[in-house]
Amino acid sequence: MEKTAIEKSDLAELLWESREEGFTALEHEVIYRELCSGCGLCVSACPEDVIGFTEYPKLIGKCTNCGYCLMVCPRSFLPKNELEEKTFGSAPGGSGVIEGVYQVSSKDKGQDGGFVTALLKYLLGKGLIDGAVVSQIDSENPWKPLPKVATTAGEIEAAAGSRYSTSPNLSVLKEAKNSGLKKLAVVGTPCHIDGTAKLKHYPVEGAELAGVISTTVSVFCKSNFIYSMITDVVAGKEGIDLGKVTKMDIKGKHLLVYTGDAEKKVLLKDIHRYERLGCKICDDFTGRFSDFAVGSVDSPAGSSTVIVRTKEAAKVLKDMEKEGFIETSDVTDGDLPVLNKLTEIKKKRARKEAAAIIRSELPMPLKFLWE
Ligand code: SF4
Ligand code: SF4
Ligand code: SF4
After folding, report:
1. Is the ipTM of this complex over 0.95?
2. Which residue puts its alpha carbon closest to atom 5 of ligand 2?
3. Which of 260, 222, 262, 255 has the alpha carbon at shortest distance from 237?
4. Whole-angstrom Cα distance, residue 201 to residue 76?
5. Is the CB of 233 under 6 A from ligand 1?
6. How far apart are CA 101 and CA 360, in angstroms?
């Protein structure tokens, strides 16, 4: 079989032999090693549509061993500096390439100032996108996120808010492409945006999914949880009626669960065991490959901290302000103590966890070198 563009790169070459084992290779290289972030990209990349997803990808049909799922997965290999250079023309590290940082408030509802909702509606209204990959709440499982391709302002508004469990957003990329959309915004956590960056610069020939993505929006992410955290702890141990929950948020040492004006605090240490295992080696807090990165840290309630990484993104932000959709104020690095601290904490933890994985895979006599 002739190698595709992605397979011809030096890094991917290392995976060439595993690739021919098909989905089994994805299981052994990524899923069983507890590296899967749950981004859902393998689902979209599979030409046979035989990858399903329930917390983790699983085979639901006959695999033809094409290897696309392994090659496209951002957790099989992700040369971050190289991808940053290809995406932005430079790779400064830290929180990634930054064109500008702003404190933004908008008129739209949504988590922490509603900026993501306002941005998507603005881009849609101006014809700069024709749809957006977002997550919405599953009507059958309260507070379980489900990926969705939103094509109207109403659908974008319905998707506002954070969910705190895995949503394989990139699993709907193929559906979006097949429905004829050509200018998609993808909203996700940094690991989703890793997938879009890898798709763009290491495209799997035949899948052609990268071409439909025009804008990426990352939400700041410290960690994420499997859905049973919601059912076991929030609904179970805490006895909160999920049907009445209006918002969830993570602040300091707590998961805050709101039912109307009432706030219930759940200690993060009580939900730690539900953390998605693939989050432990994640070193990216802001989404270093995103056009826009958005979160609440270092901004007052009702506002967002927004990082823009490209001149095009900065222009959109300024145009939104000129047209009265948002208000912005410039932020300097000194105004971002929490963001900088969380960025460093995440990198440090990822290095430690990665070292533990490397150590665990060493032959027995060598393991003791670390003790
Ligand atoms: S992409 Fe689909 S068909 Fe190809 S190896 Fe993976 S599971 Fe098998
Ligand atoms: S990280 Fe994404 S692409 Fe890789 S196995 Fe998990 S869901 Fe699939
Ligand atoms: S911590 Fe990393 S891997 Fe986990 S959800 Fe957030 S961005 Fe994804």
Report:
1. yes
2. 36
3. 255
4. 15
5. no
6. 40
Is the CB of 80 within 6 Å of ligand 3? no
Q: State if residue 41 touches ligand 2 by the CB under 6 angstroms criterion.
A: yes
Q: CA 317 to CA 62: how far, in whole Å?
A: 46
Atom of ligand 3 nearest to the CA of 279: 4
User: What is the rounded distance in angstroms from the CA atom of residue 162 to the CA atom of residue 88?
Assistant: 28
Alpha carbon of 65 to ligand 1 centroid (Å):
5
Cβ–Cβ under 8 Å, residues 229 and 240: no
| Domains of the chain with bracketed CATH | 5-79 (3.30.70.20), 98-352 (no CATH)
- Residue type at position 7: E
For ligand 1, atom 7, the nearest C-alpha belongs to 23
Q: Which two tokens stand for residue 94?
A: 């830290």
Atom number in ligand 1 closest to CA 45: 1
Q: How far is the CA of 198 from the centre of ligand 2 (A)?
A: 12
φ/ψ of residue 191, rounded to 5: -70, -30
Which residue CA neighbors atom 2 of ligand 2 most closely?
A: 39
One pLDDT digit (tens) per residue for the chain, 371 residues: 455 555 555 555 556 566 668 999 999 999 999 999 999 999 999 999 999 999 999 999 999 999 999 989 999 988 888 888 888 887 666 677 888 999 999 876 555 568 999 999 999 999 999 999 999 988 888 899 999 999 999 999 999 888 889 999 999 999 999 999 999 999 999 999 999 999 998 877 666 799 999 999 999 999 999 999 999 999 999 999 999 999 898 888 899 999 988 999 999 998 999 999 999 999 999 999 999 999 999 999 889 999 999 999 999 999 999 999 999 999 987 899 999 999 999 999 999 998 888 888 777 777 666 55
**Residue 77, CA distances (Å) to 19, 83, 208 in order:** 13, 11, 19
Out of 19, 26, 28, 30, mutate this one to test ligand 2's pocket (max ligand atoms within 8 Å of CB): namely 30
Going by alpha carbons, the residue nearest to atom 8 of ligand 2 is 42
